[in-house]
Amino acid sequence: QVQLVESGGGLVQPGGSLRLSCSASGSIFSIFAMAWYRQAPGRQRELVASMPTGTNANYADSVKGRFTISRDNAKNTVYLQMNSLKPEDTAVYYCSADIATVRGGVPYDYWGQGTQVTVSS
Predict the structure, then answer these.
(1) What is the average per-residue pLDDT within 89-115?
(2) Closest among 91, 88, 108, 92 to 100, alpha carbons compared
(3) Kind and range of the H or E run holding 24
(4) Which of 38, 84, 108, 112 could be joined to 91 by an S-S link, Cβ 3.0–4.6 Å?
């Protein structure tokens, strides 16, 4: 059993910052790519940022220069630092991770329950 638990969401004014965290726990052998997605009301879920096992990161054009993804492999945790937040960043943010539970096993895509981020004055 593997669980991803997000935290750090909330209400923030435009121009403010938030830091999201997502920790994986349970029967984990190895974690491969980790990523953050978001889904606004009435819209499809979209990729915000992703980070493979190395240090390279990929970002949606809408968040480049404002958001930073990072990970602490020792803690099985991925972070999303969000700066200069805009009302259009309002959404439920989800983390996902490709996790193998046994040596040589096929990684499976696990998801967290989501955390609400609201940017409003």
Answers:
(1) 95
(2) 108
(3) strand 18-26
(4) 38
